[in-house]
Amino acid sequence: MPQVIAERYELVELLGSGGMGAVWRARDRMLDREVAIKEVALPAGMDEEQRERVHARTFREARSAARLDHPGIVTVYDVVEHEGRPWIVMQLVRAPALDRVISREGALPPARVAAIGADVLDALRAAHAAGVVHRDVKPGNVLLPHNRAVLTDFGIATVAGDETLTQTGAIVGSPAYLAPELARHQRASPASDLWSLGATLYAAVEGRPPYQRQDVWGVMAAVLNDDPDPMSQAGPLQPVLEGLLRKDPEQRLRPEDAIRQLRQIAQDTPQAAWAPPAVGGPPVRDVTLPPTPPPPTMESPPRRSNAQRWAILIPAGVLTAVLVAAAIAFIAFVSDGDDPGARNSPGAASPNTSGGTTASRQPQTNAPAGFQTYSGSFAAAVPQGWKQEQTGRNVSFTDPDGAATRGIFFQHLANTTGGEATHLSNAAQKFENDSGYTDYKQVAWRENIPFQDGKAAEFEFTFNKSGKAGRCRVRVFSYNGALYMAFLVSGQHNWQDSNTKFETFLSTFRRP
Q1: Domain extent for 256
Q2: 487: part of which helix (H) or strand (E)?
Q3: Is residue 41 located within the same domain as residue 159?
Q4: Do residues 92 and 76 make contact, with C-beta atoms less than 8 angstroms apart?
Q5: pLDDT tens per residue, range 105-128
Q6: What is the pTM of this model?
Q7: Alpha carbon 328 to chain centroid distance?
Q8: Are 280 and 310 in contact (CB under 8 A)?
């Protein structure tokens, strides 16, 4: 004799169970349709008052989830009480959950994971707009019907602004995917769901959660104190995951930026280019994955007093570990004009540690008036008389006129290509969040710029550094089988002339 819930829902098959209850396939006798029905489990040792509070929370949150109408969210039809327990009636989605797909297939290709992430994030944005926070985003709650992803189980979601009825001391949610602020028993927010989404996508692309420890308390301690375990399979997804997994909710990647990056990765990255680790052996890095380059070693700048220089600093980790192994720091120092003797002193000479040819040694025949030809790992017209410093493939050209306060910089990022806009977006947010750039304001963003053999992406921002008004234009592009960044930094007072020089540099950029 089948069990019938609330004289209406006939239980047919147990689909799964977990810490928050069991899910059944059932038949709605009234409407003659199949549904999924969740039996909400209550923790052992709860007294009657605590049980009533959990029941109240369940009914309230099921009602809030029932308000959500989105193709990426499993619809809640009803919530009933049976034998003193709440049961949530939901749309039945015949599809495997992401955790089972990971268990069966191992690490998934970044493009596929990006598509899953974009679908889930779109669903979360709809929920957040309605004031609903999920609180338990994890692979087991992401269903994968054909060519899309659906988010289920808002059973422990809370309505923003409502009092949380969680039992004191209980862990609500899955520890491996629990945002650090929730591990501290702080209030859930949309940013908490973003962290859990990042952990979920990490698990999908790496084949394991971001923190693997011996027990739940080790996981919780790692969530609170440690960086995620190093990634080896994420490829173009790594900047997005790092942005979502920041411990400070205020510093996490914004949902509009994350979804744009995820969609681009899903569209631009060939799935066949990424392979999971070999079974039974150590992880194998696909040749298309960016290898971890050594930290860039920039030549020390000329020694000047702090009062006689304007330091142009790039925030730590500006392009993340997927592009450079360590932070780019002290890219250049540009004199503020108070030390006229420095430009002629021995210490101000332009070293060329790679042994390449400097611009001053090149013939002027192919360069526009006022420019000279640089030739090294690339060729381009650079302003005549500008000082060159070079280490490996990294080159800087700075105006020796200290009052000009400007320079053009060329930086090797990674031995991979593609995903320019994705990496640039992550860099843009790093700049925005860096406290050293006061009065920061993004003034331009451009994607799909034809450049070299593909597309480039760039953005511009204004800022104030050490009392100096400045402006920066950053372009990321693929060239000669690798990813590079070219950027211009200048005082605001001579931006137009500096930008014209940068345009000439870009328009003449070519293979040597």
Answers
A1: 98-163+172-273
A2: strand 482-491
A3: no
A4: no
A5: 999 999 999 999 999 999 999 999
A6: 0.53
A7: 18
A8: no
